[in-house]
Amino acid sequence: MAVCHFFVVLAILNAVFCNEYSDNETVIMYVNKVGPYFNPHETYHYYQLPVCRPKKIEHKSLTLGEVLDGDRMALSMYSINYKSDVAIKELCRVTFQEDDLQLLRDAIEDLYYFEFVLDEIPIRGFIGHLEEGGFLPHTHKVFLWAHLSFNIEYNGKHIIYANVSTKEKEPVNLDDVTAPLEVAFTYSVKWHSTDLKFEQRGQRMRDNRFFPKTLEIHWLSIINSMVLVFLLIGFVVIILRKKVRTILAEA
Ligand SMILES: *[C@@H]1O[C@H](CO)[C@@H](O)[C@H](O)[C@H]1NC(C)=O
Ligand SMILES: *[C@@H]1O[C@H](CO)[C@@H](O)[C@H](O)[C@H]1NC(C)=O
């Protein structure tokens, strides 16, 4: 990986040489941001939540693009080695106090997602899960995902795609618990071989978007603009009619 820095200017060579891994080489997982799913511009650092964090938090130096994107990458505690699967392993145990529990409940109610970054691939999932049931009586339950299963697709020496699934283990119910509550956070890693080429990984990511397509947002803003245009035309017509009437009355 040291050789990478020589190729930074030559973007193509950079892509070919720098994202190469040999078997069992350490693959760094960065934790990045968290925020409400329906407001992607509001983001916080992942370590602002009461989660597993290293004793000393080390931040990654970011490129300008990443800074403008609101990125705040820091080293995670996940230990991931190229092409070596990890069966369910404990990451750490966290003891939640009452304010931690409240923070998590609020984040889950606001549908907070998290974003990690592995080999420049964003990996996104939800912090927890809301269960709304019954109409009368209405039930409302808040769950925390304490286990993350990472899936990583590779081809030869390259990582092509990665995602996370939270549903492999039952989540922790945060409703009727009292602080202090100790929760064990766990993870697992599964490597899948794929035929997709390194050049196709951008496409692979676009095909699996986490955020809704922006198309609907475009439609909303078009309707919004049309309503505004009709209102303005309406005002102009009303004003003109008044003017015409006064002119006719004077004549
Ligand atoms: C992979 O590397 C880790 C340490 O980085 C080591 O503990 C493990 O035994 C290695 N596995 C293999 C199959 O070489
Ligand atoms: C995550 O990736 C794995 C392996 O490629 C795939 O089987 C799975 O369907 C993916 N999950 C989601 C939610 O996209």
TrEMBL record:
The keyword Membrane applies. GO terms for biological process: protein localization to membrane. InterPro entries: EMP70. It is found in: Cytoplasmic vesicle, Autophagosome membrane. The chain crosses the membrane at residues 217-240. Keywords: Membrane, Signal, Transmembrane, Transmembrane helix. It is a multi-pass membrane protein. GO terms for cellular component: autophagosome membrane. Its main location: membrane. Residues 1-18 form the signal peptide. Belongs to the nonaspanin (TM9SF) (TC 9.A.2) family. Plays an essential role in autophagy. This is Transmembrane 9 superfamily member. It comes from Dreissena polymorpha (Zebra mussel).
